[in-house]
Design goal:
about 140 residues; mainly alpha; three-stranded antiparallel sheet; 3 helices; signal
Length: about 140
């Protein structure tokens, strides 16, 4: 089984290597192109146009990367500003809730004292927290 696997892998590798395309000379004879030379023996350069413009392509890629990095930094700055504003609003809401509870506790008469004590240095969670339902009393 192991030997068959090695033979299959070597066969696949040999097939992959044998399919490589090699460059051929192209001749232009008037308005036609051929692989055989004609009277003028003018050969054409068939190298990839990308090879000559590699530097220009690299510059374009670098420019695009720089633009994307600047956009990412601007988005991060905007996000941080929004988060700071949300934190300020949240703290103001917590302060207002605390003030309401302390006013309610001070304004209550002796007979109608609130059953819930005001929050003392305890903030409600900033995110949702699941809690188990209280057990039913028999």
């Amino acid at each position: 089984m192991h030997q068959r696997l090695l033979i299959a892998i070597s066969f696949i590798a040999a097939c992959a290597l044998s399919t490589g395309a090699s460059g051929q000379k192209v001749y232009r004879c008037g308005n036609t192109y051929s692989q055989t030379p004609c009277g003028g023996d003018k050969t054409l350069d068939t190298t990839s146009p990308n090879a000559t413009s590699a530097a220009a392509r690299r510059q374009a890629v670098d420019k695009e990367n720089k633009r994307q990095m600047e956009a990412a930094k601007a988005m991060e700055k905007a996000r941080l500003a929004q988060e700071a504003e949300a934190l300020k609003r949240h703290q103001a809401e917590l302060k207002a809730i605390e003030e309401e509870k302390t006013k309610a506790a001070k304004g209550a008469t002796g007979a109608a004292v609130s059953t819930q004590a005001p929050l003392k240095n305890k903030k409600p969670p900033e995110f949702f927290t699941a809690k188990e339902a209280p057990a039913a009393k028999p």
